[in-house]
Amino acid sequence: MQIGVEMSKALENKRVFVVDDNEIIRAALQFMLHDEFEAHEVPTVADAVEKAKSQPPDLIIVAESLPKAAGFELFGRLKQPAPNAKILVVVEPANTAYGKECVVAGANGFLAKPLKIEFVRQKVDAMLGRSTGGVTIPLTVLNVR
Prior knowledge:
145 residues; Rossmann fold; 5-stranded parallel sheet; 5 strands; disordered N terminus
């Protein structure tokens, strides 16, 4: 177990899919989350949809390249087998405007790189309505709706 992991959160067993065609980013995000969540690396949207049929996620983290390639209807496809799942899009720092477009189009929030473990966990906690354990971060700061 990593330093700074709250055992009660780890026991909650929230399921998170990390959907990214970049294996390194996908693995990094999964590593950042695996101690507090049931985190799954999923390489494609089709794989995520199929996996969600038997293991519906609470949160789906998506690389910005995926909605750029498939369009914003991607969010609906991901939610079809998991209607209660939240969607978080990871964007490059220069593309926060695109992150806001994703939120308007159906995502629940976005996360701008660089990906730091503390911020990623705080953002995921906020998306799942979990207590951050101390400091309160306004949802407007976290780009969450």
